[in-house]
């Protein structure tokens, strides 16, 4: 399973989002810090989930990182998050 699928599966399980888009943007960062030849280093997530309602931006980001877990977050160099309730 690729990292995009892992991210998608873990976020679906944790938040039951109404909308979820996970994009691997690694190729856009070729040659930049953290980029690896095999890719899967830079991701953009857009998620709309009721579970995010009423949370601050920092609380939303922390919730996503907790749901992804250290094992997965440790393999990602950059994670751009667009989160809303």
Can you describe what's shown?
The protein is 35% helix and 24% strand. The chain has 85 residues and is an alpha+beta fold. The protein has one domain (3-84): GMP Synthetase, Chain A, domain 3. Strands 1-2-3 form a 3-stranded mixed beta sheet. Helix 1 packs across helix 2. The protein is elongated, with a radius of gyration of 13 Å. It starts with a helix and ends with a strand.
Give the helices and strands, then pairings.
Blueprint: H1 3-15, E1 19-24, E2 42-48, H2 57-73, E3 78-84
Parallel strand pairs: 2-3
Antiparallel strand pairs: 1-2
Helix pairs in contact: 1-2
Structurally, the number of domains stands at: 1
The overall pLDDT average reads: 88
Radius of gyration: 13 Å
Strand proportion, as a percent range, falls in 15-25%
> How large is the count of helical segments?
2
Main sheet: strand order: 1-2-3
Please state the second-level CATH architecture. Answer: 2-Layer Sandwich
- Major sheet summary line: 3 strands, mixed
């Amino acid at each position: 399973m690729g990292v995009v699928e892992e991210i998608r599966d873990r976020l679906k399980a944790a938040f039951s989002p109404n909308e979820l888009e996970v994009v691997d943007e690694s190729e856009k960062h070729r040659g930049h810090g953290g980029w690896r030849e095999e890719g899967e280093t830079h991701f953009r997530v857009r998620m709309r989930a009721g579970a995010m309602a009423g949370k601050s931006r920092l609380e939303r980001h922390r919730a996503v990182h907790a749901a992804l877990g250290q094992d997965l977050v440790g393999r990602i160099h950059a994670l751009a998050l667009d989160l809303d309730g």
